[in-house]
Structure formats: C-alpha cells, structure tokens
Amino acid sequence: MYTIEFSQIAWEDLRYFKRYEQNIIIEAIETQLTHQPTVETTNRFRRQPPEIADWELRTGDYWIFYTVEEIVQIVSIERIGEKPNNELFFRGRKASRR
C-alpha cells in the first residue's frame, strides 16, 4: 500500500474547493492511488511531457497531478486543479502554458 503525501501547494489547491468537492477529490486519491498508482487506466496515466508532475488522475472535472516514488511507496500529490471546457484552472486561475 502506498502512502499519500500532499505538497504545500496541493493542500492550498484542495482548500480552494468546496467541502463536497474536496470529498470527491480525496475519495479518488484514496481509492485510485493507494494501490498500483503507476498502472495506466482510462482516468490515470503518465504525462507527456511531465510539466507539473509525472502522472495525473482525472475524476470528473478535477485533475490530480502526482509523482510516485516506487522504492519507498510514496505518492506525492503535487497539484489539484479543475478542467471545465478543456481549460485547466488552479484555484480559479487559468493555468499558464510553458
């Protein structure tokens, strides 16, 4: 079983959302990332290129960006955003493109 850790910025991202949205996000993290977080699925896959993090998990309009340390079995949540209408937002602000 993998341990879940949040970066400071990911905690701030999570606090931006309403309580019911936070519950959806946390439930997705707990069910999808505690076991086999590097197995690609329809909603979980490796990012190419990995601008924010190596992996992303999508649950509805919410996107969770994370990295995995296989040896110590830690999943680090790097950012949490939302992507309505195919545009990514962090805390209500449109994400800039690199």
Description:
The protein has a single domain, classed as YaeB-like fold, CATH 3.30.2310.20. It has 2 helices and 7 strands. The chain has a 5-stranded mixed beta sheet with strand order 1-5-4-3-2. It has a two-stranded antiparallel ribbon with strand order 6-7. The model has no long low-confidence stretch (mean pLDDT 93).
Order of helices and strands: EHHEEEEEE
Oligomer: single chain
- Considering the protein shown, what is the CATH homologous superfamily? RelE-like
Report the major sheet: 5 strands, mixed
Overall SS class:
alpha+beta
Instruction: Give the mean pLDDT.
Output: 93
Topology-level CATH name: YaeB-like fold
Taking Cα atoms only, what radius of gyration do you get, to the nearest Å?
A: 13 Å
Low-confidence blocks of residues? none
Task: Provide the β-strand percentage band.
Answer: 25-35%
Helix content: 10-25%
The total of beta strands comes to: 7
> Rough shape?
globular
Number of domains: 1
Which architecture would the CATH scheme give at its second level? 2-Layer Sandwich
Strand order of the largest sheet: 1-5-4-3-2
